[in-house]
Amino acid sequence: MRYSFPWSGRQHTESAPHAVRRQLRELGPWWISSAVLTATGRRLPRRAAVRGLAAAAAADLLVRRVSVPPRSAAGALSHVRPGRSPKPSGRVAAAVAYVIGVGTTEPALGPPAAGLALAVTSDRLQRGDPLELLAGGALGAAVAFSGNRLAPTRTPSPVRTVPPRRVPQPSRPDGAGVVLVINPRSGSGHGGRLGATARRDLPAAEIVTLEPGDDVDAVMRNAAGQAQVLGVCGGDGTVGAAARAAIDAGRPLLVIPGGTFNHFAADLGIERIADALAALRHGNAVTIDVGTVDGKLFLNTSSLGSYPDFVAVRERWEPRVGKPLAAVIALALVVRRERPLAMEVDGREYRVAMMFLGNGRYQPHGFAPGWRPRLDDGRLDLRMVTVAGRLPFLRLALSVLTGRLGRSKLYIEDDPVDLLVRRPDGPGLLARDGEIGPAPSELEFGKLRRRLTVYRPPHRAVLDR
What was the pLDDT predicted at 167? Predict the structure, then answer.
């Protein structure tokens, strides 16, 4: 395979092996930097690494494939021979894109990334054509900012309607008073491996291992009744059962993330067992809200319509095409094949394709929420895609691709304290924290304010989060 680069008058070609070697050479510093950030094991540096590397690769690809449009003779490039344009510097474009991608995701990492970029491009900055350098920088910035528009990084935190309430707990470095329930099958066996680590690090704790066929709710209730601290090692479903038992028994909850996604633990700042053990050792705990629907609790999300299908399709495509395009594909497949539901939401009638309810306000805005800056803000997070008018899917897809979903009349986003939903067509299905089950035709969503006490690690520096 050979690649053509349309720079000016001549046609240049490059063989596939040479193209790969060239890209590795040009993007090598960004691959290494991203690997270092990813190796920290923390969510924000890892996300910054992915965004920075994706922006650098996209900028490099555009430099190789797309020519800068010619400027008129009266423009700033008037000295360039007619019909030709300066070739943007690929190294500068990738460097600028990487710095912006990393810095807008985690500002504290921006200065180190900028220092690396200056070191990598110093020779080119000293000897390169100024117009090529400017063109490369402009292209890199455009690529990075376009990526941020398609998939927003971090929107400003919502107004903090209530201050966080800390509930100091006794220090338990050896696990005394802790009853830890382990789901060894969660996370494809990850929970079992973490359970073995917990046995070693918490020698005074009582360990309960879930067996196939166990009634998880009953096991959690029994454990909470015997514990001073109820611990759980498993995924979001197991953690949800433990949270219900902890609330009923009035016990603080210790969460060890042993599942596949661990959304709740990540929002607490717990991404590995060391985080949970540090919180237990320091006695650092807070009270948080819990969502309710039809008298049942949820820690993360509840949803109606085809949102669970949307998430499943998006996560299947995301590793291959990235989150923004995966969201468009998921909307295309789900909205077209699913029948919209007639719903009455707080007295207003809609035809709803999918509805998302979060326990607390999520970020970023749009229909791919990822994390919560607070778990005690007293609010629900309502996001709803409706179907009305002509070509609703095309309008939705264009809104997602242009970053204007929040302005689409087909999309509704709000942060109510409670919500009443009626389904004129009768009972249907409801998802709570990923578990789908039957639900009545009338549902009331609300919050239990600061009802759950949960351990949270002390504040950490950016590379340790």
Answer: 93
Asked whether the beta carbons of 92 and 153 are under 8 A apart, the reply is no
Here the CATH number for the domain that contains residue 309 is 2.60.200
> Whole-model pTM above 0.85?
no
Domain around 44: 2-150
Q: Considering only CA atoms, which of 413, 415, 166, 420 is closest in space to residue 292?
A: 420
Tokens of 87: 């070739």
Residue 395 lies in a domain: yes
Is residue 108 domain-resident?
Answer: yes
Alpha-carbon distances, residue 48 vs 102, 105, 319 (angstroms): 5, 5, 16
Q: What is the pLDDT of residues 296-331, one digit of tens each?
A: 999 999 988 777 777 778 777 877 766 666 776 777
Find where tokens 């998880």 sit. 216
* 13 lies in the same domain as 131: yes
What is the helix (H) or strand (E) element at residue 222, kind and residue range? helix 216-226
Q: Are 136 and 92 spatial neighbours (Cβ–Cβ below 8 Å)? A: yes
DSSP-assigned states of every residue in 25-43:
HHHHHHHHHHHHHHHT--H
| pLDDT tens-digit map of 195-240 | 889 999 999 999 999 999 999 999 999 999 999 999 999 988 899 9
CA distance 15 to 19: 6
- Rounded CA separation 260/315 (Å): 12
